[in-house]
Structure prediction request, 385 residues.
Amino acid sequence: MSTLKLQQLNKTYPDGHQAVIDVDLTVDDGEFFVLVGPSGCGKSTVLRMVAGIEDVTSGVVLIDGERVNDVRTNVRDIAMVFQSAALYPNMTVAENIGFPLKLAGVGAAAVAARVARIAGQLELTNVLDRKPGRLSGGQQQRAAMGRAIIRDPRLFLMDEPMSNFDAKLRTHTRHEIAEMQRRLGVTTIYVTHDQVEAMALGDRVGVMRGGRIVQLGSPMELYQRPDNIFVAQFIGSPPMSVVSATVVHVDGLAALRIGSQQICIDESSLRHMPLLSAMVNRSVALGVRPEALLVDRSGSLVASAVSVERLGDHQLVTASIDAPPVPATGGAVQAGIPSGSTIIARMDGIAQVSLWKPLRLRIDPAQIHLFDPSTGDAIDVGGQR
Prediction:
C-alpha cells in the first residue's frame, strides 16, 4: 500500500487549453479516493498524469514520497482499469488475469496460485475457464480488475470503469468494487462523472470543475456543507434547489423574502445563525434540499405543484415559485430570469398532491444554505466555517 501526493499539478496542452490547474491533493495509505466532476473538468487527465500516460506541465507527483514525474509508466508499479475492460478475447479469464505475471517471467505454478487467490477475492473462481464473450459485463470488469491488481501494485487507478453499465449492473458492481477495495486495502483513486457513485464509494471525494478541485471532503461533508453553489447542485440527487432571496426584518427578527413571500425564522433557529441579523437587506442565494421542504398546511411558502415523481416509499414534487433561480455556470453563478423557478420537495409516498394547485411548504431553517450570488461561495451565518 502507498500514499500519493500531488503538488501544484498543472497540465496545459499545445493549443493553450489548461486541463488541470494547481491541483494539490494527498491520498492516504489504503484510502478509497474519488475524483468527481462533469465531462471535461480534468479528472481523467489528473489520473493519467499519476499513471504517467500524460506528461506533467508543472508540479510534482509523489508516490510514497518519491518524485515520479519522469519515471516511465511501466516502472511506477501502478495498476489501471479503464472504461472498457479490454480483455483479450482469445484468452480465458485465468489467462487474462495471469497475463501480467506471465510477461514478467513468473513461473506457471506461482501464476496459477496467484490467479486462484485473486479469483477467489473477486468471486470469479467458477468462470476461470471461460472466455470474455461468455461473461456478464460485471464479470468482465472484475476480470480486468483482477488482471490489474495481481501484481500487488502500489496504487490502483480506475477511470470510469462502470460508465457502460446499465443502472442495475452499476449498483451491483459498485458494491463489489467497494468490498474488493476493503478486502485488499490497496490505495485507490477512482474517477467518475456520477455523483451517486462518488457518494457511495469514496472515503473522501474531490469535486473538480474547470481543471480545479473546488472542494475536498467526506461524502456527507460535501452534501451537508457545500463550499459553493456548484458543489451544492452537483452533489445530491435530486440536486439542491437554489433561488434568489433577500434577508429582511420581520417583527424584529431576521427573515428571508423569496419573491413576493416572506419566510420567518423562529428565535430558536436564529440562535444557530447569529450572523444572519447583520445581513439585513442583503441579496443572497437560498439553497434547500428536498428533505428540507416539508408539506405543512400552516407553512409560509406557497408554491404550485407542476409534477410528481413517485418512487415507492416517497415522492418528489416539483413546484414553481415566483423567485428567480441561481444556477452555477461556467464562470461563477448567474441569476435566472425573474419570471420564477422550480423547487423540489420530498414527500411521503402516500401523500396526495394536486397538480397546479397551491402547495404550502415549510422550510426547515436548520437545513437552509446561503450563498453569495456574485461569487457562488457559501455564506457562514453560524460562525463555524
